[in-house]
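Fig. S4 source data, part A: sequence.
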Amino acid sequence: MRRNSAVKMKKNAQEPYNAYVSVAGTMNRRLVREGDRPTRNFDGKSMDFFGRAFFIQALHSFKNGFRRFITGVEIIVLVVAVVSGFAFWTSFTAPDKHIIENIHVVGHQPQIVEDEMRERLLPYRSKGFFAIELGEIQKSLAEIPWIREVKVNRKWPDSIVINVDTWQPVAKWGEGKWLDETGKLFTLELAIDDNSNMPLLQGPEEDAVQVFKMYQQITQLFNVYDVKLKSLKKVQSGGWVVKMDSGIEVRLKKDDVFEGLRSFVKLYNELGGQRDNVEYVDMRYPDGAAISWRNGKLAAINGATVSSANIQ
């Protein structure tokens, strides 16, 4: 009888506990009758349910409040850091700080380019390291006709470095144009100092690279025989006209250019003291060559048939 009553009492105590579990998630107090307050046994001890629920809720409230406090502190610290950093950077990068003292120019440039660069860079020596406009300097220097490419960089704490790539003319092309070391055509409005030793190359502009390569190959061949090339021209028919520094002109057909040049060098050596009287040598004949003397006479070599039609 007592056993059944104990089981019944335990069951009755469990039901109110389940009914009031939802109270743990709220901050509102609920009034209950004294006889209905549920209890539960933990390790043989009785714990007041509402007391435990409000303790848990208070703990959560404390944690949330602490998080809000920490978040507020973090925001304040961040704002202070940003403001301080901005003030420091503004002072550090002021126009009157770290005045440019040194300008380093890397790359070979003619004296005329150095003089103009020095004049254009002079106003920037009084500007600060961070205030100086690199793009403005680069644009100004790129306007110098001699300069092919230019790059400007800062070098801490008071310098700028300028890398300059200038046009390097190795040959004249027609009137007012030049060829660089790759055979690329370019135009310079400025006069080039000491260009008397530069060869003159001519032909269709679209064939400039081909003409330049032919010039290099002929020069290599002539160096073997101690002969110097003065000019090279590609004619409309595709043939070539080579002029030596002695004034002799050599006319070559489109094909077998180097075979014709070798034959000419052999003939040139055989002429000996008569070379100064030669106006041009036409190597376009299949069986030999024709020589035009400065007195206007023509001479056939090795049986070549010469006429006024085939020497133009």
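Fig. S4 source data, part B ends here. Residues 24 and 54 are 7 Å apart (CA to CA).
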